[in-house]
């Protein structure tokens, strides 16, 4: 989705988990054609979420080349992607950087999602840096063209989906099953390994305690 994104900071009074109120300033991304439209749109969008008075304290152009929502993710990460090009005459490689905003639940998932977003890229690239973004929400632009409606709906569906949590009863059953397996064997069970891109990330062996 090619667009110009504006980062808008919104100051308002919010209620925390303890019920206390505090003043917060939070950044949001708006897809707009100008600062004026960005201000108008962020006021419209926030009016639907905030019942009390709020103030737009700052608007600036965000340096994101692309925004990529992903299903069952609730945090945003800023990925620095270095595109690599080779100069045939000098034989040297040149790098140009761009930034993607991707949705994920942690840094590793953000790395995987960045690779997924870049999978159709023809040239080589590296991902030298990923950091969690303070962006609270993203609002794409809809011009009213019916051909864009499906894209916008898909964008919002992915963006607003939340991580799936395992129910506590199911977790208890899994734990009980593992405990039973440990009690039933006096020999080390098979090593449980998680391997990603050829790297052994975790290796666990279970042994029965000596009597």
TrEMBL record:
Residues 166-187 have a biased composition (Acidic residues). InterPro entries: DUF4494. Residues 166-211 are annotated as: Disordered. It comes from the Bacteria. Pfam families: DUF4494. Residues 188-211 have a biased composition (Polar residues). This is DUF4494 domain-containing protein.
């Amino acid at each position: 989705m090619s667009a110009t994104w504006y980062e808008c900071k919104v100051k308002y009074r919010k209620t925390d988990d303890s019920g206390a109120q505090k003043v917060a300033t939070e950044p949001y991304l708006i897809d707009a054609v100008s600062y004026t439209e960005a201000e108008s749109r962020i006021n419209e969008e926030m009016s639907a979420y905030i019942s009390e008075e709020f103030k737009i304290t700052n608007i600036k152009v965000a340096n994101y080349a692309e925004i990529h929502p992903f299903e069952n993710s609730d945090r945003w990460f800023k990925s620095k992607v270095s595109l690599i090009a080779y100069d045939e005459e000098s034989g040297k490689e040149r790098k140009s950087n761009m930034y993607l905003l991707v949705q994920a639940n942690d840094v590793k998932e953000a790395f995987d999602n960045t690779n997924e977003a870049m999978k159709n890229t023809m040239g080589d690239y590296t991902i030298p840096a990923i950091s969690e973004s303070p962006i609270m929400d993203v609002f794409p632009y809809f011009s009213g063209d019916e051909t864009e409606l499906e894209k916008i709906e898909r964008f919002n569906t992915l963006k607003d989906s939340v991580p799936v949590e395992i129910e506590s009863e199911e977790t208890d059953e899994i734990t009980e099953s593992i405990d039973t397996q440990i009690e039933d064997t006096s020999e080390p069970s098979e090593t449980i390994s998680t391997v990603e891109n050829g790297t052994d990330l975790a290796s666990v062996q279970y042994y029965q305690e000596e009597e």
